[in-house]
């Protein structure tokens, strides 16, 4: 009977030891999982580099054909050209999501993420380039891609106010269009149309075929023919973390801080 009592008294201790061992193993597995995820995020650009190079070669080959089609106000290039754009856009979005995750990690460790290339302007962890040369919409899109960015996508009143203040031309191309389905406008970054700033009465698709969007000097938007020549276009890209912006890089926070 005493042996049974001893066994009964030892059982709780055994259960506690077993539970502690399980928790320790769970902690080790969780740590290993996070380490593997971080390694994947860090190595992902290298794993995808070959695919990126192949897409860039294909994109270069497509550009000459795409430029010739820029004068059309109808849908974007079809067939191989359009498939190439879709693949390139999807890869770009995937790389951007990885970059955003890395940015969040660095910001959580105290890094400041507002560094932009020369001649780009920093605002809310993004960089903006204000191009000033006559281009059609598709040419403006290619110009932004050549600068490792894309035509700007606008998602808040604060961002719109910043762009309105910085833009110095009467009209500028932005990354909004309804080339695929009439009336269904989509941003270049693939995010929902969660903010709009249309000029009263717009979009009206006047004369049929106004499938690309420009920003007026007032900041209001207007749909227009994609083959129109505008003197300005706005690109965007993610800012980077680490060292402060160089003297060649402008930061809008300087202006807002001085008011």
TrEMBL record:
User: CDD domains given for it?
Assistant: CLECT_DC-SIGN_like (cd03590)
Residue numbers spanned by region Disordered: 62-81
Q: What is this protein called?
A: C-type lectin domain-containing protein
Give the superkingdom in one word: Eukaryota
Instruction: Tell me the PANTHER family matching this sequence.
Output: MANNOSE, PHOSPHOLIPASE, LECTIN RECEPTOR RELATED
Q: Which GO terms describe its molecular function?
A: carbohydrate binding
| Keyword field | Disulfide bond, Lectin, Membrane, Transmembrane, Transmembrane helix
* Species of the source: Cavia porcellus (Guinea pig)
For this protein, the record's Pfam families field holds:
Lectin_C (PF00059)
Q: Which PROSITE patterns match?
A: C_TYPE_LECTIN_1 (PS00615), C_TYPE_LECTIN_2 (PS50041)
**Domain (C-type lectin) ranges:** 123-226
Kindly give the SUPFAM superfamilies that the UniProt entry links to this protein.
C-type lectin-like
List where the protein spans the membrane.
21-44
Do you know which SMART domains this protein is assigned to?
CLECT
Q: Which InterPro entries match?
A: C-type_lectin-like, C-type_lectin-like/link_sf, C-type_lectin/snaclec_domain, C-type_lectin_CS, CD209-like_CTLD, CTDL_fold
């Amino acid at each position: 009977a005493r042996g049974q009592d001893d066994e009964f008294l030892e059982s709780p201790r055994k259960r506690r030891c077993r539970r502690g061992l399980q928790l320790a193993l769970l902690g080790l597995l969780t740590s290993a999982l996070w380490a593997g995820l971080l390694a994947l995020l860090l190595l992902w650009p290298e794993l995808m580099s070959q695919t990126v190079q192949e897409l860039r070669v294909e994109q270069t080959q497509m550009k000459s054909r795409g430029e010739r089609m820029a004068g059309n106000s109808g849908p974007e290039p079809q067939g191989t050209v359009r498939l190439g754009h879709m693949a390139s856009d999807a890869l770009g979005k995937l790389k951007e999501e990885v970059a955003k995750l890395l940015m969040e990690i660095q910001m959580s460790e105290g890094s400041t993420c507002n560094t932009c290339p020369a001649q780009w302007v920093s605002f809310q962890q993004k960089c903006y380039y204000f191009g000033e040369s006559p281009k059609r919409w598709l040419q403006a899109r290619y110009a932004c891609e050549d600068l490792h960015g894309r035509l700007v996508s606008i998602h808040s009143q604060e961002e719109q106010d910043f762009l309105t203040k910085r833009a110095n031309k009467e009209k500028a191309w932005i990354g909004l269009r309804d080339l695929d389905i009439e009336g269904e406008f989509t941003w270049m970054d693939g995010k929902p149309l969660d903010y709009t700033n249309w000029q009263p009465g717009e979009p009206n698709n006047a004369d049929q075929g106004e499938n690309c969007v420009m920003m007026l000097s007032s900041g209001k938007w207007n749909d227009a023919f994609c083959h129109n020549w505008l003197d300005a276009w706005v690109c965007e890209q993610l800012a980077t973390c680490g060292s402060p912006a160089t003297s060649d890089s402008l930061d809008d926070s300087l202006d807002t801080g001085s008011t």
